[in-house]
């Protein structure tokens, strides 16, 4: 089969399976199968696919048609200009989380050698982005999952940041000490179980449930994190967490004893980041 025809057939198959952005997915999975870039696909429409290539392409298309996220099939996702390894052990990094980085950076750059904790690091995307942008920062990353920490450590090594980030297998900030950090950052689970029907099927079915759902209301993990962050932050330190519009008011209520409480919206005007300062 010609490359051009394979792509056309793939787009039709993914469209029939109601896969979002079928052309983008067809391109991505063929690039993965052939280990090439998009320019190669466009430059060689007449290239003949071998039977082995056709078979492998058919296999990954079948997975995608069943709802498996393309990132789990290819094992990769880009975040903050870095190619990250991902697996079903970690939440797939999303562009919305880059708003967390954008919120942290000006605060961190105003500090001398800031000490930062990334809580629930998952793939390590937040910790790595901060380590990349803040060469004088001391970064600590926590997760309760051994499998997630394995992925995060692999990503740190791939980007030569393994000596910049300290990893811990702990629940939130447990045992990290008091008045120790300048910034606590987190993309915690914040979806309520009552919202489950509104969450994309492929997220519900394939991404780690504990990284998506916090409990009945969506505030359960944040409710535990806030007092722990207050304890571990130095006076004047900042807490920056990813949220959703559903829990924005609840998150602000939980931060009522903090100073400078702010909610930042994403590009879709959805509340996406809550930040607050620990008062002296």
Keywords:
280 residues, alpha/beta, seven-stranded mixed beta sheet, two-stranded antiparallel ribbon, 42% helix
Please tell me about this protein's structure.
- α1 (3-16) crosses α2, α1 runs parallel beside α4 (51-65) and α6 packs parallel to α7.
- This protein is elongated.
- Helix content is 42%, strand content 21%.
- Strands 5-4-3-6-9-11-10 form a 7-stranded mixed β-sheet, with helices on both faces.
- It contains 12 helices and 11 strands.
- It has 280 residues and is of the alpha/beta class.
- The mean pLDDT is 95.
- It has helices at residues 3-16, 22-34, 38-43, 51-65, 70-74, 98-109, 125-133, 146-158, 201-206, 209-212, 220-232, 248-254, and strands at residues 76-79, 82-85, 115-119, 138-143, 165-169, 181-186, 191-192, 213-215, 233-242, 259-265, 271-277.
Instruction: Give the helix tally.
Output: 12
What is the element string, with H for helices and E for strands? HHHHHEEHEHEHEEEHHEHEHEE
Q: Rg, please?
A: 21 Å
Give, in spatial order, the strands making up the sheet with the most strands: 5-4-3-6-9-11-10
Q: Total number of β-strand segments?
A: 11
As a percent range, the share of helical residues equals 40-55%
Q: Tell me the distance between the termini.
A: 68 Å
Strand residue percentage: 15-25%
